[in-house]
Structures are given as structure tokens and as C-alpha cells.
Amino acid sequence: MAGGQINVSRETIGGKMTKNETITEREMTLLIANLLSVKAIFAFPREIFASSANAAWIEVIYMSLLAWAMLELSFLTYKISGKKSIIDLAEKIGKKPFKIAVALLVTAVLAVNFITEVRMFSESVKIILLPKTDIEYIMILLAVTICLGQKSGLSAAATINAIFFPICLVFLGFIVIFLSKTYNMNNLFPILGNGTGSILKGGIKNISCFSDVLAVNLLLPHIQDISIPKKSGRKALLIASLTMLFICLSYALCYPYPWSKEFLLPVYQLSTRIRAGEYFQRFEAFFEFVWEISQLLYSTIYIFLISETLAKAFSLSDRTAICYGVIAAVALISIEPSSVVTVLAVSKIADMATAHLAYLLPIVIPVLYIIKRKKAQNS
Amino acid sequence: MRFIKIAFIVLLLVSFASCKDAQEPETLGYVVAIGIDVPKEGEEGYNITIQFANPDKISGGSSESGGKGGSESIENITVLAPGIYPAVNIANHIISKKFVLSHTKVIVFSDEIAKRGVEDFLESINRNSDIRPNIYFAVSKGTAKEFLEAVDPKTEVNPVRYYTMIFENDYSGFIPQNMSQDFYLFYNSNEKSTVMPLCAVVSSEKKDEFSDLGYQYMVDDYVAGKIPTSNSEIQIAGMAIFNRDIKIAEVGDIKTEIFNIITGEYQSSFVSYYFSKTPENPVTVMQLQKKKPKISVDTKGNVPKIDVTIYLECDLSSGKTEEILESELEDFSKEAAGEIKRQAEAFFEETKVLGTDVIGFGSFAKRNFKTRKEFEDYNWKEAYKNAKIDVKVEFSVRRTGLIVRGEDKWRRF
């Protein structure tokens, strides 16, 4: 295969899925960038403003640097661990029981992120677009769409993502540019917002925003060249950081604190303020387009990662059954909380409990593997 | 299997069409304005007037001549309710339409409501996605119901456009450019106070003496309802000043124009100036604000020092023929700049007495602090009352229209 291409092989999952799927480096970059950016497009800026007030943009830079440092640390282990994901390495460290334990931990990290995201997405669709439609119906539609995405496979999802995600970024760029008339520079002051302490603490807490960098590691077994995930991971984090930075800056420039920490959907709120001349006002339609496409692709990729992790953990030959089971389970669990307030509270606690694992696991597991290998070599 | 696949695709297509949320335009009542009044004595809640568009009259229905516009294009219904949405709910049961607020352009509070506080309504307006953030709030000098019932959009077929043209007129400074979301974002802020436009039904009491202001010379500082006119039932001019959500004062149209100039929201308008060489005749110019004012706030000393530099330019529109000469434009510019400075200073004094920083100097003061706590401890609202404000005006006459009169003074003698 030509350099810059990633080989996603279904052979690794089981005998039944024998078709090879390849995705290019560009697709891989945009795939990870989508995973990292969806939270920025969605509700996450509100959390950052809650901790750092108008200095949210500084917190974003700090968070990005932290996430980048963690990513680089995990890259350091690639030389020895090679193209093995943390699930594969766990098996080598502690046989099957350890593999299952790590896989369940990874599944928990991914599922916690995903379950709240699915519910909040459906709730937001109901609030903005379909007020009369039942939330259950919206979730069923979302689940069916994810199932269709799964049926097409990762390669198709990555290709579609590579087409749509740049378009989404362009539309987000339009939102940022068209809002320039509304910007008030004074909203960025006092420059440190709630203070350096809040920025430092908030940055560590909110680093969960980029916790999906875990996907870089999970996709490792499917690559041919070890330099690809490094390049893709760095580029994707840069895209996501810039997306988050521009969204937070625009939001801060348009909405003074403390109101900036109150709006449920910051980017939607921004899009409603756009007025290009007398007639072109309802710009939120573009936001809805950007938001839905990226969310559906995000969901498809997420379900792929969860089902593949579980399939590996239990050495299952076909991940299709798991995939549909996971979709059904996610839909059922996410509908459980009675209100949006509960979902947000649960999401906050779950994020704090699991997000840091997403950064630590790709460092700790390879380090354990390296130690074990060295011990074995010495003995 | 093939049948199942086709059935599944058809089912998906139907499902994704979201027909459940579909609404036919003819079943909807498009609310264009809402008026809020205090109820009669002994009644609880508010008298809420819903003004909605009459699409048949706007489009012309089956007639070939098109829409009619005027008062026929709108209808009003008043209900007693505890809030805007309960009022919409009641009205839905009275009128055979489902009211939607997505095209609402203005919410009018009666003077009495504004004096009691409007906070109760702000929440419902911002919490719901159907009301847009760029609508206008206004305070009616009489009741909001009277005002809305007097609205007669003679020059517009579409009532929404009528309100847009009135409130977003680029060629007038007599209405404060302050959208509802700005009011919501700053009404509770410690860096800025808020304002709303004043509106009223034309009153029979009219002042017949002119003010002695050199800015808008021979034009009075009118509030809505008092401008002498013959072809309109309603007027929108001047502004109400708020402390938090409560109206505490009102200023006339000229001071509102000064407000717009200082905030940088002013665009252009015809302004008549006093000129000492033609005291009987004002010099009228087309005034433009090409650059936003430069504002800096120094909070180092005991009292804040505010520097404001206003940049205005104008095109000469009219004046007394034999007196306006190109050699005198410099004198005129100096006098005009001095007059704007005087008016601005007078406006600042008024706001300092009221303790309301409507310009938002507090937002600039924030630049001097590192954290929000430091700024909060400074207590800007109190500090503003003693602020020293220095106003500089850069005023220039750029063009003289189609006439350029040189040094020829023959018409003076």
C-alpha cells in the first residue's frame, strides 16, 4: 500500500469480516478531528466559560497544550509497542483477564462520553427543530441512522467524513466571520477572567473535551506505517484546538460573562445572531446542517470503536451483533434520565471520573508492556 | 428480502420527513408585535396585546392587485394572562390560528410596566428558540395596547418590514440602536446600564417653542408622541433609561442621537447646527460617523478618568446662501465640534446624576483589571458617579454638495 494510507483490516476482528478496508491519512486525520471537534460544536464551550469566564480562550490554549503533551507522551511508546493497541498490549501483559479489564475500561470511557452526547443531541434536535416529535422517536431515528452507518463500515464512514467535515469547518468559519460585526473586544476583559487558578484547574478538568484522542491508539492495529497516527493525531488535535479556540473567542466576543455560561448550545446561539443584510438572517439552518452531519459521523465512528473494543476483548468473530446491541443499549441508557438537567449533571460527573483515563491508558498500558518486556529480556 | 428492504427504505423516507412537526402556513398566526400593560385594578397578571399579521391582506388573497398593507394587514387581540406564553396559549383558543413568535419584531412595554421592572419577561424571551434575539424592546408612553392599535403601516405591505424599517433606520439617530438581546445581556451587569426606545400615540399637546440647543438647532428635544406631525398616529423617538430592569428616566430625540454617536451606533442623519454668523438660520449638514469613537478609561486614581474622542464628518446640505463660504468652513467646524462636546458633556452629567452608565464605559474600564473579582471590587457603578469625562470631537466638513463658493463675498453687501 502507498505511504500515507492506513489499512483497516477486518481480518483482525474475526474471520467473518474478511474484507480489507483502507483509509487514507487525510481520512484518518479528519476522522479524529471530527471526534475531537463535535464537543466544541456542541455544548462544551459552556463548561469552559463556567470555569474561566471570559478567559475561556486562554483555557482552550492551555487544554490543547496539555492534550498535545499527553499525546506526544503516548507517541514515545510507539517505538517499542509498535502498532499494537492498548487492548492488544493488555493481552500481552496480563493475558485474557487483563485484556478484558482494559477493554471494559476503554468501553466505559467511550460509552460515558457517547451516551450523554446521544441524549443531548436528541434533546437539542427536539428543542430547535422538532418540538412536537417525541424524544424516543428522535432517538430511534438516530439509532437507525447509526446502524446504517455501521452497515456501510468504517471505510465508508471515513470517506463521507472526509467530504463533509471540511465543509462543516467552512460553515463554522462563515459563522465566525459573519459574526464579526457583533464582536465586542471589551468582552475579553478582564483578561484573566476568574483568575489563573481557575484557568489552571479548569483546564485539567475540561481536558476531557479532547479525550477522544484515545481513538488514535485504538486504530493503531490497522495501520501500516507507525508515522501515520503520529501525523494524523497531531494534525487532528490542531484542527480541533483551533475549532474550539475560534468558537470560544467568537462566543466570548458576542456574549459577556456570566450569560456566556448559561446558553445550552453556544454555537447555535451564535448562529442566531448573524445578520448579513436585511434578508439573510436565519443562519442557524447552516449550523443545524453542520451539527447534524458531524454528530451522525461521530456516532458512527464511536459505535465502531466501542463494538471493535468489545469484540477484541471477548475474541468474537463478528462485531456486527455487538454493534447493534451497543446501539440499542446506548439508546436505552441515554433515554433513562428524566430531564436535560440530570443528563448534564451525570455527564459532568462521568466526565471527571473517566476522561483522564482516556489520556492515561495509552501511556500506562504501553509502559507496563515495555517494563514486562524488559524484565523478560533480562531474565 | 427485497420487499423488506424496499419497505424499510419507504418507512425511513416517511419517518425522516418529520411530518409530525409540519405546519401549514395558513394555519399559523404570525405574531409581529406584543404589547404588555398592567391590568385593571383587582385583576392579576398582565394585559397582553398580540398583534398578528393578516396574510390574506398582505398577499392580496384572490385579488389581482396584490397586498393592501396599512392597518388592514394586522389584527390585534388583547388577553389577560400571567406572561407572554400563557397569553399566546389563550389567544390560540380564541383565534382560529396557531400563533408563532418566530416573526415577532417588537415587544412594547407600557410606561407603568417599565417603571415596575421588566425582568419577568426577559427570561421567557431568551429561553425559547422561537423568539429571535434581534427583536426590539420599546417603552410606550401610554398603554402598549393603544400604541399597537394605532399602528398603521401605510407605506409597507408587510408589517414585519414596517417595524424593521422604523427601528433599524440607518438615516436617523433619534432611536437608540439597542436590540433585545443587548438589553438581556446587560440589564443585570455592573459594567453598563441599558436603554429602550420610546414610542407613543401622537399626543394633541405639542410644545411650540424650540430648544436653544446648538445641535439640531431649532429642533426641539422631543420624546415620542410630541413631535408635531400630521400624517402619523404613532411616533418612535427618544429613549427610556433603565437601572437594572426598571425605567428611571427618559431623554428626548436629540440626546438619543448624542447617545448613538457616543456608542458608535449612529450612522448618518441630517443635522442642523447653530452658526454664529447666521444665528437666524441653521446650517444643515448630512452628518456621518465613519469611525467609532475612541474611548479610554483610566482607573488608577480615586476617580475614574474617561477620555472620549468622537469622529464625525459631514457634507454641507443647506445654509444661508450669502453667509456660507468655504473660507468659513473651519470656523463652522469648530463651532459644530464645540456644540457636540457641550451636548455630550451635558448628557454625561445627566447619566452621572442618575447613576447609570448607559454608554458602557464600564466595559472599557474592565481592561484595566486582571480578574473579574478585581473589577467587581472596584464597584464601577458607584465610581462612575464621580468620573471625570473629557470629550474631544474631530469634526470636518468633507464636501460642500454641488456648489463650491470661493472667496467671493459680493452677496454679503
Note down, in words, how this protein is organized.
The complex is a heterodimer of chains A (379) and B (413). Chain A is mostly helical and 379 residues long. Helix content of chain A is 72%, strand content 3%. A two-stranded antiparallel ribbon of chain A has the order 1-2. Chain A is globular and about 75 Å long. Chain A starts with a strand and ends with a helix. With 413 residues, chain B is of the alpha/beta class. Chain B is globular, with a radius of gyration of 26 Å. In chain B, helix 9 (253-263) crosses helix 10. The longest helix of chain B is centred in the last third of the chain and has 26 residues, at 329-354. In chain B, strand 1 and strand 2 form a beta hairpin. Classes of the chains: A mainly alpha (379), B alpha/beta (413). The interface between A and B is medium-sized, with 32 and 30 residues.
Order of helices and strands of chain B: HEEHEHEEHHEHHHEEEHEEEEHHHHE
Percent in helix of chain B:
25-40%
- Give the mean pLDDT of chain A: 85
Question: What's the Cα radius of gyration of chain B?
Answer: 26 Å
Q: Order of helices and strands of chain A, N to C?
A: EEHHHHHHHHHHHHHH
Rounded to the nearest angstrom, the distance between the terminal CA atoms of chain A is: 38 Å
Structure classification of chain B: alpha/beta
